[in-house]
Each structure stands twice: as C-alpha cells, then as structure tokens.
Inverse folding.
C-alpha cells in the first residue's frame, strides 16, 4: 500500500530537522522535504543530503531568488514598507513565496498535507498558513510545535541527539537565524531579553560591526527604471544580483543593522537583531529618487498607505485583496521613478551625494530666487491672503 505524502517546509535548521523523524513516527507517511532558495547562502547538496539522512524520501529545492527579488522585495522597496516604521520585513516577504512553492510541489506530489516548523508563539505560522490558503484552502496543514511535547529549543536539541540528527545549534549558542536575499534575522538565547548587551561581532554574519568597518568612505550608484533597481555602479544586473551586490557593499560599511523590540502578530513583544544591508541601501536610494520625481500629494499618499501595506505584509496578508489593491497603486506611482542615485557609505551611514532623473520635477528656473515665466513673486500675495483668511477671522472673533 502506497503511503500518503506530506510536504515539509525544510530549512536544514534545528526545528525542521527534528520534524522529519517526528512526522514519520506520528503519521507513517512519506516526507517530501522542500527547501526554497530565496537567496540564502547554502551548500544545496549538503542540505539535500541532510534531509535524506534525517528520513525524507525526496528533496526539492526551487531556486527562486530572482522571483523573490523582483516580485516581493522590489515592490516592498517601492512602497517604502517598514513595519512600525522600522523593520524592513525581510522574513515576512519570503514566507508568501515559500508558501506558494510548497503548494505547487504538494500538488505535483499529490500530497495530503503541508507541514511547517514554526513555533506557536511566532509570526511565521500565520504567514505560512495564510499563504498556503491563498493557493489551496482545503489542504491539511500540520504544525508540530502546536502538537508535540517539545517545549523549548533545549528540548529540541535533546530530541535531535536522541534521533541521531546532525545539528549545528548548541545549548550554549541557541540562536534562531533566518537568512534570505533580503536579510538575516537573529533571535533567541541572550538576544531575547532587552536588558542584555549583545556583542554584535559574535552575532552578525553579513554586516561588519561598526568597529570593523573601513576608515575610507565608498561611493555607490544605483540606476532605477520605473522604480526598479536595474544597475549598480553602471553595471546592468538581474534583481537578485542587485541585492547580493548591495548586501556586500553595504555590509562592509556596517549599514542596515537593527536591534529592535517588535510587536508580533499574535500580540507579544519580542527582540530580534536584523541585518538588512542591501535592502536598507536600496530603500534609501529609492526614497531619494522619489523625492525628485513624485509630487507632494503622491508622496503623502504613499506614506499613509505604506503604513497599512507594511502591516498587511507583516501579518501574512500578501495575497489579500487589500494588499493587491495597494500594489496596483504603488505600481502606478513608479511610472516616472527613473534615474540614478549616488550615495556615500561610511561607518553605518548612507549619505546623499547626487540624484538625477529625466523625470525630475525640480526646475532650477522655477525654484531659484530669480524671476521666471511660470511664477512671479507677486503671486504669493494672493495665496497667503487666502491661506490666512480663517486665522484672521478667528483672531477677530477672539478665538485665538
């Protein structure tokens, strides 16, 4: 009799590694491990080998870094999406794409369920399951952390040792890390308590601590077409190349490190350390170009809508009607966001150097102090009279 199949969102980390033997014990099913390449640096042959040694019967690795950059990261950059005005959503952006790939492979393999290794306290369980539901609302979802007797990462390590599963996590260094093209997040261990000092040099992976950054500044130019970064320092690049190049340049100068206390989707506060060097630089450059090419009213609308957009993405609603509507608005705003931005990188700072655009709304004749054919200094008198009228009336009535 053929066994049923379960597709597992596999990373090769502690949680998903121990999930394979647990699933086999509790479901007597064939486990299909799926590790989606969203730009993380991995030896994919070793990841596959580990999955199979842990008990998976098959391994898939969809390489989706360019899709991730073009269809998920770049729209978030164009929207200037920052959750609570701070976090650049690196993990949240990857989850809907991974969910999409999981469903595709589940359908290909005729699997009866999809399993993820998210804890019951985190955001990713919501993001994965909302993403899965967007493509298959009927398929069963298995979440071991909401079922098994393992209560902590220390318990998980003990279980891995018991089952002979090779892991890199130790009880002394028990950080949970998530890496993709956009960022690397670090949580757990001594990071958890906001009262603890964390030595960044021992935690950061792609970003230099400020003490280790070069003493010489470096200049970088980014070229945009319709809001999308297409070249770095004059070299045309694919979307994933843009991010990986900027990660290297920015990481060298200590840019994009966030040590932050956030409000999770399920209501609790948590502390995390995020490295988003390339994403931070890209968003800064994009905002600089928009300041030159968008009207005041458009910028204001974007700022208002961006807050809601970031909330939707953080809470896993990438495929929601509201989010798709916002994306359509954002796409419209990008039609004239063309040009080149140069920034100076130094000791964690991104300093403006120059910005040029064929669609710039800055007009030197109009904005200068001299006369021009569009605006006369005398025109300001009527404008001020109209704008101050309510204030004058209030003053006459003794209301101010």
């Amino acid at each position: 009799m053929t066994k049923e199949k379960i597709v597992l969102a596999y990373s090769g980390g502690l949680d998903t590694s121990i999930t394979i033997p647990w699933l086999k014990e509790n479901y007597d099913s064939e486990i299909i491990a799926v590790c989606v390449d969203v730009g993380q640096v991995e030896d994919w042959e070793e990841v596959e080998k580990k999955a199979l040694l842990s008990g998976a019967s098959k391994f898939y690795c969809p390489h989706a870094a360019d899709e991730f950059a073009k269809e998920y990261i770049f729209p978030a950059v164009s929207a200037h999406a920052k959750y609570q005005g701070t976090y650049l959503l690196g993990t949240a952006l990857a989850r809907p794409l991974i969910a999409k790939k999981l469903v595709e492979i589940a359908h290909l393999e005729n699997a009866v369920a999809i399993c993820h290794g998210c804890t019951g306290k985190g955001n990713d369980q919501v993001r994965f399951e909302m993403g899965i539901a967007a493509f298959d609302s009927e398929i069963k979802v298995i979440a071991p952390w909401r079922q098994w007797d393992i209560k902590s990462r220390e318990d998980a390590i003990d279980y891995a040792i018991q089952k002979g599963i090779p892991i890199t996590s130790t009880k002394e260094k028990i950080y949970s890390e998530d890496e993709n093209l956009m960022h690397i997040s670090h949580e757990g261990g001594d990071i958890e308590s906001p009262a603890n000092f964390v030595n960044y040099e021992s935690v950061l992976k792609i970003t230099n601590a400020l003490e280790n950054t070069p003493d010489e500044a470096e200049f970088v130019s980014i070229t945009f077409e319709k809001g999308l970064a297409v070249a770095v320092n004059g070299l045309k690049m694919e979307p994933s190349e843009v991010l990986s190049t900027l990660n290297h340049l920015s990481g060298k100068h200590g840019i994009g490190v966030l040590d932050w206390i956030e409000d999770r989707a399920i209501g609790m506060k948590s502390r995390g350390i995020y490295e988003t060097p390339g994403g931070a630089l890209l968003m800064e450059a994009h905002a600089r170009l928009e300041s030159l090419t968008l009207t005041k009213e458009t910028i204001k609308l974007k700022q208002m809508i961006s807050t809601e957009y970031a909330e939707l993405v953080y809470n896993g609603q990438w495929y929601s009607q509201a989010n798709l509507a916002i994306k359509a608005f954002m796409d419209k705003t990008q039609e004239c966001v063309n040009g080149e931005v140069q920034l100076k990188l130094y000791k964690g700072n991104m300093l403006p150097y120059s910005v040029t655009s064929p669609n710039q709304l800055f007009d030197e004749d109009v904005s200068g102090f001299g006369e021009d054919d569009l605006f006369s200094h005398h025109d300001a008198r009527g404008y001020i009279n109209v704008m101050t009228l309510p204030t004058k009336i209030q003053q006459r009535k003794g209301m101010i």
